[in-house]
Amino acid sequence: MIKFNQVYKRYPGGHEALKNLSFEVAEGEMVYLTGHSGAGKSTLLKLVAAIERPSSGGVLVKGQNIRSIKSAAIPHLRRNIGLIFQDHKLLFDRSAFDNVMLPLQICGFDHRESAKRVRAALDKVGLLDREKTNPIALSGGEQQRLCIARAIVNRPTILLADEPTGNLDTEYSNEIMNIFKSFHQVGVTLLISTHDEGILRQFPARALHLKKGELQAAVAGSGQA
Ligand SMILES: Nc1ncnc2c1ncn2[C@@H]1O[C@H](COP(=O)(O)OP(=O)(O)OP(=O)(O)O)[C@@H](O)[C@H]1O
Asked: Which residues form a coiled coil (predicted)?
């Protein structure tokens, strides 16, 4: 499903964010990305989503080579990928419903079918009764759940989450992780970056540990290498 083969990523200015990464994530697998700040976790997720391209090496996502994928093919690839990134902010000039509707509008879906899908996504994250609420009136945990609803409304087969429990307390973090667990149970492939030791202990899965852009080890059933 996702395969990295000797991947390097150098940003303009010469900074090498990823060095010689090789690993695979199987279809339906849930995998954590761990490592200190600046270790390269976000960069790795951006390569999978074709937000960035590798400087060298191969990144295969659903059979597509991200290094050589044509720009015109990227929207099609992204329809299969749900992104929960810290810089993907909610829009505060519209309702929760309309925030989740946006990706479907961009894809040109029929309005009635879209409305059904939006409500199904809001239901999955427990926000169906808040559809008319402006996100500004939601708690941090609810806003994060709304971001998840927006990421899954396209029914992606891969979910990429960058520090999804970053600023949340334990109760909200567990809620978010239980939502991810339910996606994992229905076969979605998940790649989740986290610093949160509690989450790694409570929701064990394979972890890829990055240190200064290099992969340290892949450990089954534990968060840290
Ligand atoms: N667009 C960019 N241009 C130049 N350098 C960048 C860019 N994005 C990231 N970097 C650098 O690449 C390295 C890896 O950054 P990245 O954001 O991938 O790390 P991270 O592990 O996600 O960190 P954090 O946990 O703080 O989000 C850092 O040194 C960062 O400064």
From this structure: none
Measured distance CA(180)–CA(178) in Å, rounded: 5
Helices in the chain by DSSP H: which ranges? 41-48, 74-78, 96-107, 111-124, 140-152, 170-185, 197-202
Quote the ipTM score.
Answer: 0.95
Q: Are 217 and 206 in contact (CB under 8 A)?
A: no
Domain coordinates in residue numbering, the chain: 27-53+71-215
Distance CA 102, CA 124 (A): 17
- Bin 114: left if φ > 0, else alpha if -120 < ψ < 50, else beta: alpha
Nearest CA to ligand 1 atom 2: 11
Q: Which CATH superfamily is domain 27-53+71-215 in?
A: P-loop containing nucleotide triphosphate hydrolases (3.40.50.300)
Q: Which atom of ligand 1 is nearest to the CA of 40?
A: 18
pTM comes to 0.91
Q: Which atom of ligand 1 is nearest to the CA of 9?
A: 12
Q: What pLDDT, in 10s, does the model give residues 160-182? A: 999 998 878 888 889 899 999 99
Ligand 1 center from residue 41 Cα (angstroms): 8
Q: Give the whole-angstrom CA distance, residue 123 versus residue 27.
A: 25
The DSSP output letter for 26 is: -
pLDDT digits (tens, 9 = 90+) for 35-73: 999 999 999 999 999 999 999 999 999 999 999 999 999
Q: Is 17 exposed, middle or buried (0-12, 13-18, 19+ CB in 10 A)?
A: buried
Give the residue among 148, 159, 153, 124 at the shortest CA–CA distance from 28.
159
